[in-house]
Amino acid sequence: MAHRQDDESVSINRRDTGRVRADYGAWLAEQPLSSRTREAYLAAVSAFVAWLEQREAGPGDVLVAPRARDLAARGYKRHMKVDRGLSAASVNQALAGMDHLFCFLGLGAAIVRREELPRSASRALDVEQQRVLLQAAEESTARDPHRDQRDPAPRQRPRPQR
After folding, report:
1. How far is CA 21 from CA 30, 85, 140, in A?
2. Which of its termini does the chain have fewer beta carbons within 10 Å around, N or C?
3. Among residues 80, 104, 76, which one has the least CA distance to residue 90?
4. How many angstroms separate the CA atoms of 72 and 59, rounded?
5. What confidence category does residue 10 fall into, taking pLDDT thresholds of 50, 70 and 90?
6. What is the spatial distance between Cα 43 and Cα 101, in angstroms, rounded to a whole number?
7. Phi and psi for 60 in degrees, rounded to 5?
């Protein structure tokens, strides 16, 4: 993951959350990420920063010190799950955006456990979908111009005698 390494990152007033968010947004726009990822990260960081500002303790050293970063990340995860009722995938996405901010600040990713995503079974085709699939397969082999040129039976290796 790319992060800031120029002298400008040292001069950021990390206690000014509005400035940190603005600087992060400008830097994020230059990163080789998809527009959807940029939007998701910026939304996650904006929500996290807003939560920091609303806390009784305020932002404190969260954007400065690794220990404060980790405690805040765990508290924010709890807030997303309990207070906001977000799904595991949404919580993990927000944590990824938050980690991207922390890496931008040179703190590295927060030490916070990700949510385990529920495993879902593969969805089987219903009867009508099976029929359509088989019909399409039959039609595609009927249209194959090389069909008659192929060897009709696969070659089998002789079995070794015992």
Report:
1. 15, 25, 55
2. C
3. 80
4. 9
5. very low
6. 11
7. 50, -135
Return d(Cα 104, Cα 113) in angstroms, integer. Answer: 20
Q: How many CB atoms lie within 10 A of CB 108?
A: 13
For 35-61, how does the pLDDT look when each residue is reduced to its tens digit (9 = 90+)?
Answer: 999 999 999 999 999 999 998 888 889
Structural domains present in the chain = 7-104 (1.10.150)
Quick one: what percent of the chain has pLDDT higher than 70? Answer: 78
CB 92 within 8 A of CB 41: no
| Amino acid found at 37 | T
pLDDT at 9 over 90: no
**Cα 14 from Cα 24, distance rounded (Å):** 11
Residue found by looking up tokens 């309990």 in the block: 82
How far is Cα 94 from Cα 48, in angstroms, rounded to an integer?
8
Provide the token pair at 133. 């699939």
CB burial class (10 A; 0-12, 13-18, 19+) of residue 51? middle
Are the C-beta atoms of residues 104 and 4 closer than 8 Å to each other? yes
* pTM score of the predicted model: 0.67
